[in-house]
Design brief:
Blueprint lengths: L2 H15 L4 E2 L2 H5 L15 E3 L4 H13 L4 E4 L16 E4 L6 E5 L4 E4 L5 H10 L16 H7 L6 H4 L6 E7 L5 E5 L11 H5 L8 E8 L6 E9 L2 H13 L6 E6 H11 L9 E9 L1 H17 L2 E6 L3 H12 L1 H6 L4 E4 L9 H14 L3 E7 L4 E8 L4 H20 L18 H5 L1 H14 L13
Parallel strand pairs: 2-4, 3-4
Antiparallel strand pairs: 1-2, 5-6, 6-9, 7-8, 7-9, 10-12, 10-13, 11-12, 11-15, 14-16, 15-16
Helix pairs in contact: 1-3, 8-10, 8-13, 13-14
Length: 462
């Protein structure tokens, strides 16, 4: 896109969204040239910020009419390169679309615009005595549109599911600027194709979200949090499998290895047991009687599998300390080296011990520092490689280690990504998991819905 073309199009976009909402300076555009993935930045030609539904649709149509690559961006917290734009393309920001349009307390749903911040929405729902469970680690800044586009998970995914389990319906713009409606405000609804389901995890490659209908549920009446301390990470991973095998589904079941424990304690001075090989952070919730029964069972299973100690939070302050320690894992690790590669290859829960063993082997084989934490209860581990991308020799080892992590997860019946998505970072590995037929089927669908390939090109199958 040359400068003359940019200038002319800036004028056209300004007619739609106002000149204050079109960014053309190099500094402004650079701010939207990257996301949280460890990938090179790509400079867009324009950044456009619609503040209303009609304007959003017109922006999409203008991009398509002119064959301009379009990348929708919420907060840019995604970790797979999903919001890195196409060179010279248009970034469409959703931070001007931040209305919670409805919270229905009788029928337990909400209607939101895509730029609503996740934590803001969850807090507003909680004030009404209701519960929106998905809680990605970036929830204080991530947006609901981004959560849907990536099918974001979180600590509560084990019991409550992930974003896709709460999307009841949606309105989205197709490339022609037509508003497509799918789903409903009803609990049951099987009218037509499940188009809103198709949009979940589509990473902005099939349509542009306008409004999202989200399911709400009653909150649990009681919760109990505990920390199990282990002298062996193998014992901790086997305990995770044993808890699930006992037909107990905690609200959260998280793991941290020794390296992560020590790093977090240095970061927050939280009084963690830095000599422990591993910690399990566990919360059970529900009816008070159920909570008491399941907490007792979990404690017994932990002790049977070698936990040297189990600490139960006595009040809200201690409970918050436990979960803050888990949420500190990534920022604490990220401070240690210039580059932090956070992966999310996921395996069936019964295969967690094997995956933990594989990560240790990969760390030794490639001589890399890998801190492991994550949502052990649903098999979604986060091996985090600490490195410096400027060291070309070491970075080569990192790339080989990442590929081996993927291969080992797939060999165990797992998946390339539990919650971070495919984006640019994992696109070349996708066919390893899906097979050629599924990949080609997806590519044909993308080509039919987006014949000019303007919607987030080069992501996934595009």
């Amino acid at each position: 896109m040359n400068s003359t073309h940019v200038s002319a199009l800036a004028g056209e976009f300004s007619k739609i969204v106002g000149s204050d909402n079109v960014m053309t300076s190099e500094n402004d555009r650079y701010a939207y040239s990257y996301d949280a993935a460890v990938l090179d930045s790509v400079m867009p030609g324009l950044v456009v910020r619609p503040t209303g539904s009609e304007a959003l649709g017109r922006v999409v149509k203008l991009c398509n009419d002119n064959g301009l690559p379009l990348t929708v961006r919420g907060a840019g917290t995604n970790l797979s390169g999903g919001t890195i734009p196409h060179l010279g393309g248009v970034v469409v920001l959703t931070n001007g679309l931040t209305c919670i349009l409805e919270i229905n307390e009788e029928d337990l749903y909400a209607v939101v615009e895509p730029g609503v911040v996740t934590a803001t929405f969850a807090q507003e729902v909680a004030r009404r005595g209701l519960f929106y469970p998905p809680d990605p680690g970036s929830q204080t800044v991530s947006t609901l549109g981004g959560n849907v586009a990536e099918n974001a998970g979180g600590l509560r995914g084990l019991k409550y599911g992930v974003t896709k389990d709460y999307v009841m319906g949606m309105e989205f713009w197709d490339v022609g600027g037509n508003l497509v409606k799918s789903g409903s405000r009803t609990v049951k609804g099987v009218t037509g194709y499940n188009l809103h389901g198709l949009m979940v995890a589509s990473e902005g490659t099939l349509g542009v979200f306008d409004k999202i209908i989200l399911k709400l549920i009653p909150p649990p009446r009681e919760a109990r949090s505990m920390m199990a301390i282990f002298t062996s990470i193998t014992a901790a991973s086997e305990t995770v499998a044993a808890i699930i095998a006992a037909k107990i589904v905690p609200a959260t079941l998280e793991m941290m290895d020794n390296f992560t424990i020590r790093t977090v304690d240095n970061f927050r001075h939280a009084g963690l047991p830095t000599d422990a090989a591993a910690l399990l952070l566990i919360e059970v919730d529900g009816h008070p009687g159920q909570v008491a029964d399941e907490a007792a069972q979990v404690e017994a299973i932990c002790k049977q599998h070698g936990a040297r100690e189990l600490k139960v939070a006595r009040d809200a302050a201690e409970r918050n300390t436990i979960w803050q320690a888990r949420r500190d894992a990534l920022p604490a690790l990220a401070k240690l080296k210039p580059t932090c590669v956070l992966e999310d290859a996921t395996v069936p829960r019964s295969k967690i011990p094997a995956m933990i063993e594989a990560l240790g082997e990969i760390s030794r084989k490639f001589n890399l520092t890998i801190g492991t934490f994550g949502h052990a209860g649903d098999g979604n581990l986060h091996p985090t490689i600490l490195t410096d991308k400027r060291d070309k020799e070491e970075w080569g080892r990192v790339e080989k280690a990442v590929e081996e992590i993927f291969d080992r997860a797939l060999a165990l019946g797992g998946t390339l990504s539990g919650e971070h998505g495919i984006g640019l970072a994992k696109a070349r590995f996708l066919v390893k998991e899906t097979g050629r037929a599924a990949f080609d089927y997806s590519a044909r669908m993308k080509a039919a819905l987006d014949p000019k390939n303007i919607l987030n090109p080069k992501k996934m199958v595009g």
